[in-house]
């Protein structure tokens, strides 16, 4: 990592689940415990735009992973990260809530008039209530992880694949959450249905 590169060796692919990201990597970070392998670097989210993460964050395929201090100000030199109003709970195999995942989209320009891009960030935060941290207490009997549970976040950044001529709207805080967006697989099925209708019409 001396040259700034944190890419995985050939043949290795970093593809953890949400639970593994929270319980193995993020929990070790907020608890200041050794993490093996310690491959996710620390980054200031305001220093780099998303397209500048290559060579700075842990790169696996088209995804970038890094730790950052939790900060409501997510402004960079070119734009800002806007929350999409979506939050998922991360639940362990023991059916305990161990973290939350927020979704953000990168906008170019100044808030709130920025232009939405295809860059998306998933921000993971740890919830200590779902973990047994009784063995990690200080002299005052307070849990160390409770003191640092909101200090660090783990981020996964990637660029969505979409048609640049087709505008895709993301969730806004003031929009109806019941609105959904078609996945690429749904769009394939819809296009197949249209082709079948055209084929059927030729036989009549």
Automatic annotation (TrEMBL):
Protein name, as recorded: NAC domain-containing protein
Taxonomic path: Eukaryota, Viridiplantae, Streptophyta, Embryophyta, Tracheophyta
Swiss-Prot/TrEMBL GO biological process terms: regulation of DNA-templated transcription; system development
UniProt entry keywords in alphabetical sequence: DNA-binding, Nucleus, Transcription, Transcription regulation
PANTHER family: NAC DOMAIN-CONTAINING PROTEIN, NAC TRANSCRIPTION FACTOR 56
Highest taxon, organism lineage: Eukaryota
PROSITE patterns (UniProt xref): NAC
Organism: Acacia crassicarpa (northern wattle)
Pfam families: NAM
GO molecular function, one term: DNA binding
Signal peptide segment: none
Domain NAC: 8-160
């Amino acid at each position: 990592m001396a040259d700034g590169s944190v890419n995985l060796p050939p043949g290795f692919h970093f593809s953890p689940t949400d639970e593994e990201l929270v319980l193995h990597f993020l929990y070790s970070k907020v608890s200041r415990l050794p993490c093996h392998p310690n491959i996710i670097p620390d980054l200031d989210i305001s220093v780099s735009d998303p397209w500048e993460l290559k060579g700075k964050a842990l790169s696996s395929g088209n995804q970038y992973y890094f730790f950052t201090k939790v900060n409501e100000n997510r402004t960079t030199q070119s734009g800002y990260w806007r929350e999409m109003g979506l939050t998922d709970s991360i639940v362990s195999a023991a059916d305990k809530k161990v973290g939350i995942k927020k979704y953000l989209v990168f906008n170019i320009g100044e808030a709130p008039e920025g232009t939405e891009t295809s860059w998306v960030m998933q921000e993971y935060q740890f919830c200590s209530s779902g973990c047994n941290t009784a063995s990690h207490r200080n002299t005052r009997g307070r849990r160390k992880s409770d003191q640092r549970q909101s200090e660090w976040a783990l981020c996964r950044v990637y660029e969505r694949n979409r048609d640049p001529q087709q505008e895709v709207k993301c969730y806004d805080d003031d929009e109806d959450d019941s609105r959904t967006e078609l996945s690429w697989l749904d769009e394939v099925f819809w296009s197949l249905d249209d082709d079948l209708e055209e084929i059927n019409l030729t036989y009549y």
